[in-house]
Design goal:
alpha/beta, Rossmann fold, seven-stranded mixed beta sheet, 25% strand
Length: 199
């Protein structure tokens, strides 16, 4: 990781995605979480204090040392780091009850591998809960998302604007059980959200 990606982006992300409106969306998505939870790209651990009482432990995957330091101020269920790369999880098959990803499916370099890994470690009956921004349904906005993704990737550590999150999740073999589209304040290329639960 470069200086910008390692030291600046985690702090910007912590502030930008720590707003009250985003926190409310996180709470909605995380409500079904239970048991042992794998948090893909846990960042500064904003999900930790929002975990419901049914969560026993959180296993976090986070490559940024700065984000891991920022996470120390959070409270919630016991937190243990379980790797640096969602595409190569250091966990046994069928070892977690819930996988969560909030604002990270846009950034994981090898998203397909990470989604397959999430399926591998999820126990039968487990759920994959996700919240992310991605490809907008408005064709004019989508065209700008495709045009600006390269710049976005350079500015925000690989973040893609144009990923169709629900389609990528389904293509990895998950069954999307519920899906909601929402928006948050900000530029139209950034504000189309996917909130979902898959098994």
């Amino acid at each position: 990781m470069g200086l910008w990606s390692e030291h600046v982006v985690p702090r910007v992300t912590d502030l930008a995605l720590g707003r009250a409106d985003v926190t409310r969306l996180r709470e909605r998505v995380l409500a079904p979480a239970r048991g042992v939870v794998l948090d893909l790209g846990s960042g500064s651990a904003p999900n930790l204090p929002l975990m419901p009482p049914a969560v026993e432990q959180v296993l976090a995957v986070e490559p940024s040392a700065t984000a891991r330091r920022l996470a120390r101020r959070r409270t919630g269920p016991p937190l243990e780091y379980a790797g640096l790369d969602g595409a190569r999880l250091e966990l046994p098959d069928a070892s977690v009850d819930t996988v969560v990803s909030t604002f990270t499916l846009c950034t994981i370099p090898d998203l397909d591998a990470a989604l397959h890994e999430a399926r591998r470690v999820l126990r039968p009956g487990g759920r994959f809960l996700f919240l992310d921004h991605g490809l907008a349904p408005d064709p004019a906005v989508a065209r700008w998302q495709h045009r600006l993704t390269g710049l976005q990737q350079r500015l925000l550590a690989g973040c893609h604007l144009e990923r169709a999150i629900d389609r990528r999740v389904a293509a990895a073999g998950f069954t999307v059980e519920s899906l909601e589209h929402a928006s948050m304040p900000g530029p139209s290329v950034l504000n189309h959200l996917y909130l979902g639960c898959a098994a």
